[in-house]
Amino acid sequence: MTGTTRYTIAVARYFEAWNSTDPAARTKAVAAAWTEDGGYTDPLAEATGHDALAAVIAGVRELFPGFAFRQTGTVDGHHDTARFSWELVADADGSAPVAGSDVIVLADDGRIRSVIGFLDRVPTA
């Protein structure tokens, strides 16, 4: 598998987890995307392990019902590290009040070992 394909698959799995609205599907998607001890850190959250990751995602889904995460641009990577940008898009009108950029580090099996997230655009009050 080429590096580019490896990054693309990892990012697709990442978005599948973040966009899962069903708890059982989310649990399965998190396990497919992250290693058992995988982590996620952004300015608002920090989580390690599948249960904690699923809980963080569930919390975001509760705050933003009717929204979906969408990749913007292409995935750029080298070695075991990749970066990409995203928006949180409203199903109703296509608005995207939140956007960010994430950096992931992959394990040998292609799952995410860690994510460092940055928020590039957030709603004001």
From TrEMBL:
The protein's name: Nuclear transport factor 2 family protein
Short name of one Pfam family: SnoaL_2
Origin species: Streptomyces meridianus
Domain SnoaL-like: 11-114
Gene3D superfamilies to which the protein is assigned, alphabetical: 3.10.450.50
